[in-house]
Amino acid sequence: MDFFNELGPAALGSRLRRLNDTMTGQAAEVYGLYQLQFEPRWFPVFCSVALEPGRHVGDIAERIGQTHAAVSQVVKDLVKHKLVQVQRGATDQRRSNISLTKRGAALWPALQQQTTDVRQATEALLTETRHNLWLAIGEMEYALSRQSLAARVKAVRDARVASAVRVLDYAPQYQPDFKQLNLEWIEQHFRVEVPDLQALDHPEEYILQAGGHILLAEYQGRIVGTCALLRMDDEGYELAKMAVSPTAQGLGIGFRLGEAAIARARTLGARRLYLESNTKLVPALQLYHKLGFRKTVAGQPSPYARCNIQMELLL
Question: Range of 106's domain?
Fold first, then answer.
């Protein structure tokens, strides 16, 4: 059985590369039919220069959808083979304008005729297939411009991880995890303060008995995340002590914990959620914004020296 058929759509990129290799190899045969000393990979750049002489590398790269570096390399090859020439711009010496040489201009009519023949042959080839590959490629490019493949894979992975994550209520046996997870990020970026140790060493006294709640995320049999809801005096809760193990970051666990904390606050009748953070914690602030929190200046002075931003979410 064909290797790519075994892998299925997961090997789409590799399958397209194989098709590209096949067509590039056969394109070289086509150039041979017309006695043209020309490499297939030169064609988009050369054609662009022939149709619009005087363009610079950046213009060509944008028009044909290739990187600046890739176009620059092709231009160097074309210059080496005396098919194009590069001249400094008359008004901007920093921009190099590219045009055909006499040799390139002499080659262009034969290349145009070959292109016409190739278009006719390719159109016939497309009629032999049930699905028009040219149109399908356009659809694929549009879909990927709307959402990248990496983003699509991340959504699938996050959904899989989310289904394997259990959000648990605090129990005494989880106190070491609760403390360690928070100490990891605090010590990495700041210094541990007295209020930290009070809440982390004695969560029952300083959080639970005061009307608060602690949630933990269990993944693959380990506690990898935690957050707390601290009871406030204004029918609200403070979202605090949120931490995710470095080994589990990037899996959407923090977002899952945040959603669970918001849901718990709503069931408790809270009117708002409040939090304190620091602007150097960019990923954390991005998470809070994604959860719906917005910056506020209405909070009371923080007991933590590291706090320089306060946020809230109205429920």
Answer: 34-146
